[in-house]
Amino acid sequence: MILDPLQKLVKIPVKIVQGKVVSLDGSALPELKDATGELLVPAYSVKDPAVLVKLTEEKTLPVLPEGSILLAEMRVYESHSLGNEKRDYLRSVREKHQKQFPMGSVSAGSYFAEITLREPLRLRLRGTKEAILENCPCNLGYLKTTVHSINEAYFNLSTDFEPHRRSHNGNVFQKVFFKDNDGLWHPLNDLRKHHQVQQEKLKE
Predict the structure, then answer these.
(1) Phi and psi (nearest 5°) for 145?
(2) By CB neighbour count within 10 A (0-12 exposed, 13-18 middle, 19+ buried), where does 203 fall?
(3) How many whole angstroms separate alpha carbon 104 and alpha carbon 57?
(4) Strand order, beta sheet including 121-126
(5) Nearest to residue 73, comparing CAs of 53, 101, 34?
(6) Model-level pTM?
(7) What tens digit of pLDDT does each residue of 53-93 get?
């Protein structure tokens, strides 16, 4: 298997001296190819207060209305121990929605469980950091329960439908899908990226 070099990051210890980035131990920085990355520094080191505000300001905005249905991806194969009732539910949800997924995006082991928003879903933008989801009450129809957030919804569904997993935590921005204006299901990460880009345009 060929590893993707873009997935491996190298940490280079540096310090800021008179506004310049230098190696932490005083040696020469390694010669680098063109790349993008992040420079993490203490907030107090940013001299211009206006720039600091721009880098750290937070804003919360609604991104999906109350009553919206989300789909949590569950990975289940025939070899996994799961009751017929649960399998039938996962199959029914997949058959109901799979034609609205982009071509080829649903693999053999991917099934879905529905999450219904009881309040508008809100996204908290955090300056240059990745935006996060605010807590939002959700109904889990199959489990006949209400939870307080998308993360809790995914955890509960994974615990019930993916008992073969050692851990039931997951990145909901990748594992939970919303129906966009194009009529197709997309990961919540697409929604996050869209609003982050829009916010950056407003700052220009």
Answers:
(1) -145, 160
(2) exposed
(3) 39
(4) 58-64, 121-126, 129-133
(5) 101
(6) 0.79
(7) 677 678 899 999 999 999 999 998 877 888 899 999 999 99
